[in-house]
Amino acid sequence: MRSPFSAARIRRALPTRRRAVAAAAVVVLLAAGVAWAVRPQGPDLRTESALLTVRSGPSGDEPVDLDTTLYLPDGAAADAKVPAVLLAHGFGGTKESVRADAEEIAGRGYAVLAWTARGFGRSGGQIHLDHPDYEVRDAQRLLDWLAARPEIRTDNAGDPRVGVVGGSYGGGLALLLAAQDPRVDAIVPMITWNDLSRAFLPESTGKEPVNGVFKKSWAGLFFGGGGNVGSGPAGISGATGAQPEGAPASAGPPSPGPTAGPGTGPGRAPAGAADPSCGRFAAEVCAAYLRIATSGRADQAGVDLLRRSSPAGVLDRIDAPTLLVQGAADSLFPLAEADANARGIAANGTPVRVAWYTGGHDGGEGPTTDSDRVKFLTVQWLDHYVKGAGAAPGDDFTFSRIAGFDALDRGLVASGYRTADYPGITGTGRREVVVAGPPQRIANPPAGNPAAISSVPFAGELSSLLGGVAGDIPGQHARFESAPLPEAVDVVGAPTVSIRAASPTGEAVLFVKLYDVDPSGTATLPNGLVAPVRLTGLPRAVEDAAPVTVTLPAIVRRIEAGHRLRLVVATSDQAYATPVEPTVHTVALGAGAVTLPTVTGEPIPTTATVWRWVLAGLLAAIAVGLVALVAVLRRRHRRQESSVHPAYADTPLVVRELRKEYADGFVAVSNVDFEVHPGQVVGLLGPNGAGKTTTLRVLMGLTQPTAGEIYVFGHRLVPGSPVLSRIGALVEGPGFLPHLSGLDNLKAYWRATGRPWDDAHFDEALEIAGLGASVHRKIKTYSHGMKQRLAIAQAMLGLPELLVLDEPTDGLDPPQIAEMRRVLQRYATGGRAVLVSSHLLAEVEQTCTHAVVVNKGRIVASGPVEEIVGESPSVLVEVTDPEAARNVLDRLAGVRVLPEGDGQLVVDTNGTARSEVVAELVRAGIGVDRVVPRRRLEDAFLALVGENSRGSGDR
Questions:
Q1: Long-range CB contacts (within 8 A, 24+) of 56-63
Q2: Transmembrane stretches, by residue range (predicted)?
Q3: DSSP character for 364?
Q4: Which of 167, 474, 532, 801 has the fewest CB atoms below 10 angstroms from its CB?
């Protein structure tokens, strides 16, 4: 697990703030850009990598190779000594896991020694889980090595000025090393444990770990992360082992301190690890894990082994000032572990400070605002207690919670708070919330399968992502709920609740969870945390059961007003080992209330807050300017719209000499002139790229024309003109909110217009849409054709006097197209008019009264459809035998039977007299019923624009 003190995250924070200010002013953008361009690319450092042989073990004389890298700041020398920091990695990682942190700390003037712990990567030896005689003594030998370096500041001979920083596995080492070696001057343990046996065998009613519930998922990852030889796989540190740079130093004489030499050899399995299931674990560690994992229960020997590697028993020996950083999103080492460490160290009179943040083993580094805060606290602690610079940091308590999303980069934002005194996990205040529900029977599944999912290592609250489907298995959990909270509650600490349980077996393993349920019913389990309990001596009847108090994991969460609490008691959880035998338990509430600890904290100002105030000021100034500009433009528009062109007052649409030219010189529309009168359905026709869409975009105020005028009922049209409310439009396809139903989309659209509800004419619009019951379905389930029909209905809401439709039949099937034809014809009555753009010339011919044909940005024809079609060179011939007639006419010179007859016989006579055509058919014995002229709009269209016309490339 990477610590939240990350150089990469810290560096990313600065340009993010610069971009925020840059969005408000070009001047700031330029300044930020210049500053970013000339910034140092990183601290000037030099590194030394080597395999150091240290001697440790119970006798203090067992050699092991440790893969190390020393980071020295520029200028560090014998006459310019610097303080040091030992930087330890997380379980499964290597020295490369902490490279970025090492470079950042070294850049602040410290010599940083990072190393790969024994049993991982290229280091030799076995994994003993931070055993005082092995991993801790290894670190002591590294202190010896630092004290002998000429660049390192010392307090006395052999005593380097040194701090120890580490996360998780490395954090446990920092605590144990400080307890074992008084030379350590300050420590910063992060996201680590107090009692390793309690962490892996928790029991939330206060029982000893030997009666705890085995945390099998995390234990399996621990064991698997250290079970391979060589560069260990990604483990709790979240980083893979990597080969260090540089060659090993030459061998030296044996000594109690570290030397360069072969030792057990990099990456080789140690002697005695014959069992392949043990990998690089020490045999006793391997055996303890296998015993517990097989039975699902701990024995005292296993508990003693884990406690041997726990700070809990040695906290009274820690004199080094301690900054404890713990994550709230951590199902491995929850906040209670840091609380126990803090209380134990403070009891010795040692300066202690506690900081909670929103990340952890399940939540990573947390938001940038949180990692920046932790970085600041860490540097402040080291600078004062190790470097001897700056005022004492104090012992105030800081914590944070997720506040939402940053409006600038959509990243999570955490708000930080501080209090003068550390309240622990019990808080400084209490809030009792009554939960209710009857006694309930719940089944323990055989072999723990299927199991509820509350959290998965590294994945946090997975159950909330699954919407509760896999979170709690039906029949395997009981629910007790509260009424909606009348006011928000800021929970900071560990809630408690009393329950009762009964079982025919006399024993039950249960998992207690506290959900935050919003008014919509969505339940969230904060950070996926659960409280496992093992209850024994249970009666058969729940009425005879004594209440037991369960302490839930500590959380930091605001439960908003109107939300409810849901207490869940489950029989299984994927992360824990449960009894194999199936049985049925009964659970009930004890006292009937959940106790919520609260803390009132003072908000912590951050540089981000300062930048936001600066940004707010800039945005306010810009907003004032924009308001003034809009006011000026509106006054100008009102003056332009105050007069009505008398010649066009009763005409829905008049377009005069319209021209649209783009900045690159491209002319999309060069000279368009037409009118749409009441009762007309006007088709706007043209090949692709002819300028149709540009004309419609200008008409709807979506783009400004270069020249020309558009009048709607005599009002000159400009963007934002009130007369636009008299136009209904479908241009550039439908756009709807996918999570709303069709009907809700129509209602939302109409509300946005601000017009009276009764003016919407919803019934007519829904009849036009023809969606039936589908109008109540969510838009994301609609086909393209259904969206198109709904968009047309939306355009017709309010029965606007002018309807503008771009390809309205796109996506409709033939019956729907025919119905659309009738709808448009009916619509153009009572003074209303329709302008429709379409590629379906046959539909335009049957639907429209008038047509405007555009080609290469110019009108090439306009007027009634029958006038544009004109005199026909072809005839429609109705005969008794079409196939025989086709054969006869094919033999006539100059006569051509057209292929697009839609099942009828359409003949192009090409000057041959119609009487001659009829006579030829009669002579062949074919009856002729009717001969009528036939010319389609398509024929006229092709004659006007040319069969190969491709328009002008309309945009």
A1: 56/133, 56/134, 56/137, 56/138, 56/140, 56/141, 57/133, 57/134, 57/137, 58/133, 60/137, 60/256, 61/256, 63/254, 63/261, 63/263, 63/264
A2: 610-633
A3: B
A4: 474
What is the Cα–Cα distance from 708 to 330, expressed in whole angstroms? 66
653 shares a domain with 627: no
Q: Is 213 found in the same domain as 142?
A: yes
249 Cα distance to chain centroid: 47
C-alpha distances in angstroms, 709 versus 85, 564, 683, 719? 75, 60, 20, 12
AA identity, residue 783: S
Q: Are residue 391 and residue 490 in the same domain, yes or no?
A: no
**Could you tell me which of 387, 96, 331, 388 has the C-alpha nearest to residue 232?**
96
Highest mean pLDDT among 525-539, 731-745, 760-774: 525-539
> DSSP letters of 71-96?
EEETT-BTTB-B-EEEEEPPTT--GG
Grouping H, G, I as helix, E, B as strand and the rest as coil, residue 911 is coil
CATH number of the structural domain spanning residue 38: 3.40.50.1820
Looking at the structure, do residues 715 and 752 belong to the same domain, yes or no? yes
Cα–Cα distance between 937 and 156 in angstroms, integer? 103
* 850, 884: one domain: no
Q: What is the DSSP letter of 384?
A: I
Count of domains observed in the chain: 5
Which helix (DSSP H) or strand (DSSP E) does residue 791 occupy?
A: helix 784-796
The closest alpha carbon to 596, from 485, 519, 511, belongs to: 485
Asked, for residue 539, whether it belongs to a domain, the answer is yes
Same domain, 255 and 307: yes
pTM (whole model) above 0.70: no
Q: 700 and 552, same structural domain?
A: no
Q: Give the whole-angstrom CA distance, residue 904 versus residue 877.
A: 8
- The verdict on 624 and 653 lying in the same domain is no
Q: What is the pLDDT of residues 194-226, one digit of tens each?
A: 999 999 999 999 999 999 999 999 998 887 655
Label the pairing between strands 531-536 and 564-570.
unpaired
Rounded to 5 degrees, φ, ψ at 45 are -130, 160
Structural domain contains residue 541: yes
**Residue 702: inside a domain, yes or no?**
yes
Maximal CA-CA distance, the chain: 129
Asked, for residue 615, whether it belongs to a domain, the answer is yes
